[in-house]
Specification:
The protein is α/β, with parallel strands linked by helices. The protein has one domain (about 35-185, about 195-218): 3-Layer(aba) Sandwich (Rossmann fold), CATH 3.40.50. It has seven helices and seven strands. It has helices spanning about 5-20, 30-35, 50-55, 70-80, 115-125, 145-165, 185-195; strands spanning about 40-45, 60-65, 85-90, 100-110, 125-135, 200-205, 210-215. The chain has a seven-stranded mixed beta sheet with strand order 3-2-1-4-5-7-6. It is globular.
Length: about 220
C-alpha cells in the first residue's frame, strides 16, 4: 500500500516536469477582482518575473515590484515595456520595502518564507487607509479537510497542466527562481494569527495547495 503512492507521486513529478504551469498565476485574475477599478500606488511583494505587477499597472498610477532574487528582477525588467508604470527593485520584504503608503499590496506565495505575524504587521504599516491587502499563501496540511482538498486537487492539477501546455512547444520560463520552502504553519494557525493582526480579514482555503487572505484597511 505504501509503494503505490510513492510510484504515483513520482509519476506526477515526471508529468509536471514535462507539463509545467504556474499555480500562483492561476490566482491573478481572482486577485484583480478583489481590487478597485482604479488606484494610485501598488506594491507587489515577491514579484518574480512581474506578471502580476504588470496586471496591477493596468489600473494603478504606479506599481512597485519587490523581490529578493536579483536574477528574476533582471528578468522582470526585461519583460516590462518602458511605457508601463512599474519599477522593480531587489530587496528584503521585511527591511527594504520602498517608502509607501500603498493603496494596494499583493503578496503571492512568499509569506510562508517570512515570519508570518511580523510580515503581516509590517505590510499593514505600509498600507494606506482605505487600502487593500491581498495574500495568496501556502499552508501546511494538518486537518482532514486539508488532506481531502489536497487529494481533490491532484486530478485537477493534471488536467490544468495538460490544458495550459496544449500546443506549447517549449516550457514557459519560470516566473520565480528562488528555492521553494515547505509551509510550516497550518491553515488554522494562519487564521488565528491573521485575525489577531488584521481584524476583519477574510481567509479561505483554495485549490492547488493555496489559501487566500483579503483585508481592507479602514
Amino acid at each position: 500500500m505504501t509503494t503505490l503512492p510513492r510510484r504515483m507521486f513520482r509519476a506526477l513529478d515526471r508529468f509536471h516536469a514535462a507539463h509545467p504551469w504556474d499555480h500562483n498565476a492561476h490566482y491573478h485574475g481572482w486577485i484583480m477582482r478583489q481590487l478597485p477599478r482604479r488606484f494610485a500606488r501598488a506594491l507587489d511583494v515577491g514579484a518574480g518575473s512581474g506578471d502580476l505587477a504588470r496586471l496591477l499597472a493596468s489600473r494603478a498610477t504606479s506599481v512597485q515590484g519587490l523581490d529578493a532574487d536579483p536574477t528574476i528582477v533582471v528578468r522582470a525588467r526585461e519583460l516590462t515595456a518602458l511605457a508601463v508604470p512599474v519599477r522593480f527593485t531587489v530587496g528584503d520584504a521585511m527591511t527594504e520595502i520602498p517608502p509607501g503608503p500603498y493603496d494596494v499590496i499583493t503578496c503571492v506565495a512568499i509569506i510562508h518564507h517570512l515570519p508570518f505575524s511580523d510580515a503581516l504587521t509590517h505590510l499593514r504599516r505600509h498600507l494606506a487607509p482605505g487600502g487593500t491587502l491581498v495574500v495568496v499563501g501556502v499552508a501546511r496540511a494538518q486537518s482532514r479537510g486539508d488532506r481531502l482538498l489536497g487529494a481533490a486537487a491532484i486530478p485537477m492539477n493534471v488536467a490544468m497542466a495538460w490544458v495550459k501546455n496544449k500546443g506549447r512547444k517549449a516550457p514557459r520560463p519560470a516566473s520565480m527562481t528562488a528555492a521553494t520552502r515547505p509551509a510550516a504553519m497550518s491553515f488554522a494557525d494562519i487564521v488565528r494569527d491573521a485575525h489577531r493582526i488584521l481584524p476583519g480579514c477574510r481567509l479561505r482555503r483554495r485549490l492547488f495547495w493555496r489559501y487566500t487572505l483579503v483585508w481592507h484597511h479602514s
